[in-house]
Amino acid sequence: MVSDTQTQTGTSPSEKKEINGTNGQLDLEASHVLHNSLISIPPTVVSAEGSYVTFGTGRRVLDGCTGAAVAIIGHGNPEVLAAVQEQMSKVSYTHTVAFTTPVAEALANEILQGNPHGLSRAFFVSSGSEAMDSALKLARQYYVEIGQPQRTRLVSRQRAYHGNTVGALSVSSHVSRRAPFLDALVLNNVSYVSATYAYRGQLEGESEEEYSARLVQELDEQFQSVGPETVIAFVAEPVGGATAGCITAPKGYYQGVRRLCDRYGILLILDEVMCGSGRTGTYFAFEQEGPGVYPDLLTMGKGLGGGYAPMGAVLAHEKVIRGLQSGSSYFVHSHTYQAHAVGCAAALAVQKVLRRDGLVARCAAKGRWFEAALNATIGQRKYVGNIRGRGLFWGIEFVQNRATKEPFPPALRFTWKLVDEAFRRHLSIYPGAGTADGFKGDHVILAPPYNASDDEFEDLVRLLNEAYDAVETEVD
Ligand code: PLP
What are residue 235's DSSP bridge partners? Predict the structure, then answer.
């Protein structure tokens, strides 16, 4: 969570040592791990339980963002640990290109029993990025199989993040993560339309419906300009996460998108790696987008394994499966660790806890409390431009002028200052892409465990406000 940029932000040398977890435990020269930063070692986590993570220094931190919106049922859940152990004692690995396992079948059944929204098959992988690459390949192969090989283009959105593998990065628009690889590794058959970013995109006096219609119109024009018969898929996060800071779509947007995709025979790929698995208050985030909305392919990750195992998935609509069946009946894609038995056991146990404890409903209910608490406290502060999100997935955008929405200069690194101050107060929050990454406006993301206690939620809001106060004082 703490990058080198963060430790460069006004932290005293002794605190810097503690934050970095050095304190005689690890130093840069002694580590052979290639950390993202080559100039500092991130803090060392030694244990994690419930809503807390403990560092080598003894510092215990409230996990206000479940890592990167991952540990949805908290850490150290004994039922998940038991399920993993049991699976390990039965089959820890088998080559799942050639074989299947009862646990992979059970996980797919748990998620897809009754073919919700026409989704009928799950392809399990080990990360959100792999899920996105798999979805892109499945989409392209679908058209090859049904005799439309001229479809070679993809349309994505600004402020999108779909992962760091080459395919997933190609449909992302994270400026700093793409920069070194442009013209070398990322695909150039991708074009972009506006994000559903009401705070900066909705015009003065424009209604939600008008804004929605304008965005759909823009997508239509994009399809027209590249030739709709050349487009494989439109890719979107129902609630935009890492790069966008929890932006939701205006009413009717996804219904309009679905209609356009149907009109031109373009596939709709919804990326729910971050916003799915119940995080927004429904199991699938798109379920709140109105009747008739469904994806042809849907990606999952993060919360699927809840952090107990690296897990991702593509869920495929029966239409896509039928397409492949009408051709080669073989998905030309595989990974050594696809549908890994232990990963599937962890994910299955997480899904069972979610269902048994009614945690998706709690996410919706507690989310309403959380929204109100954020708006009533930090939402009133002078550098808070916008609070947005759904369920237990909230982004707070900071600006230096609320009236003009003028962002802070990148050199100020507002986001990192706040993350740093929160960490000092034993709270972990997620640093969204900010002005330092080439985007207007800094933001942080809050994504606590669905089963955090009421007291822990109160603490989160209090510590966040205290951290903000410290940054405001420093900036003034
Ligand atoms: N898609 C979305 C929406 C994400 O937020 C992320 C990661 O943040 C990914 C895909 C990539 O997932 P992973 O980091 O597991 O590869």
Answer: 269
- Residue of 127, 130, 161 with the most ligand 1 atoms within 8 Å of its CB, for mutation: 161
Nearest CA to ligand 1 atom 7: 163
Q: What is the DSSP letter of 232?
A: E
* Ligand 1 pocket member 430 (CB < 6 A): no
Query: Does 243 contact ligand 1 (Cβ within 6 A)?
Result: no
- 107 CA from centroid of ligand 1 (Å): 21
For ligand 1, atom 13, the nearest C-alpha belongs to 128
With a CB cutoff of 8 Å and minimum separation 6, the contacts of 255 are 289, 290, 291, 292, 293
Asked whether 68 lines ligand 1 (CB < 6 A), one says yes
Distance (Å, whole) CA 277 – CA 449: 12
CB-based contact 104:339 (threshold 8 Å): yes
Beta-strand runs (E) in 282-399: 297-300, 312-317, 384-390, 393-398
Q: What is the pLDDT along the chain (476 residues), one digit of tens a residue?
A: 333 333 333 344 444 444 444 444 567 778 899 998 888 889 999 999 999 999 999 999 999 999 999 999 999 999 999 999 999 999 999 999 999 999 999 999 999 999 999 999 999 999 999 999 999 999 999 999 999 999 999 999 999 999 999 999 999 998 888 989 988 888 989 999 999 999 999 999 999 999 999 999 999 999 999 999 999 999 999 999 988 999 999 999 999 999 999 999 999 999 999 999 999 999 999 999 999 999 999 999 999 999 999 999 999 999 999 999 999 999 999 999 999 999 999 999 999 999 999 999 999 999 999 999 999 999 999 999 999 999 999 999 999 999 999 999 999 999 999 999 999 999 999 998 777 777 888 999 999 999 999 999 999 999 999 999 999 999 99
For ligand 1, the distance from its centroid to the CA atom of residue 135, given in whole angstroms, is: 13
Cα 69 to ligand 1 centroid, rounded to whole Å: 10
**In what helix (H) or strand (E) does residue 199 lie, and over which residues does it extend?**
helix 198-201
pTM of the model: 0.95
DSSP category for residue 149? T
How far away, in angstroms, is 422 Cα from ligand 1 center?
24
